[in-house]
Amino acid sequence: MPEEAAQAVEAKALGGGARRARKCTIHIIESRCKGCGFCIEFCPRDVLEVSETLAPNGYHPPYAARMDQCTCCRTCQLVCPDFAIYVADVEPASGSAES
Ligand code: SF4
Ligand code: SF4
How far is the CA of 19 from the centre of ligand 2 (A)? Predict the structure, then answer.
């Protein structure tokens, strides 16, 4: 499902037309990463890039170069064959309006 369609379905499921602000963090487990680049290739928002850092296992892992573009869709997590990248939700600050 295209990203916009998925967000529209989600907004409807939340009971309103307004998009929920989504916040997350991207985590790379460098010891598992084989540098295949799938996560970079399939990210729909071009968030990830190859790091210049060489991990101890000899591969260049990805990093979130444009995190402000991330929609927390988890495509990177789903396509990684080595379970080396995952997306963690960031809880909204207490006292937010969401009930
Ligand atoms: S969660 Fe989605 S938008 Fe964010 S880095 Fe992963 S694939 Fe890209
Ligand atoms: S898909 Fe997984 S193994 Fe491949 S570069 Fe990304 S994090 Fe590394």
Answer: 29
Give the Cα separation of 83 and 40 in Å (integer). 14
List, in order of start, the domains of the chain with CATH numbers. 22-89 (3.30.70.20)
pTM for the model stands at 0.77
User: What does the radius of gyration of the chain's CA atoms come to, in whole angstroms?
Assistant: 15
SS3 26: strand
Taking the CA of 38 as reference, the closest ligand is 2
Tens digits of residue pLDDT in 61-90:
999 999 999 999 999 999 999 999 999 999
Q: List the residue whose alpha carbon is closest to atom 2 of ligand 2.
A: 80
Ligand 2 atom closest to the CA of 80, numbered from 1: 1
Paired tokens of 94: 């207490």
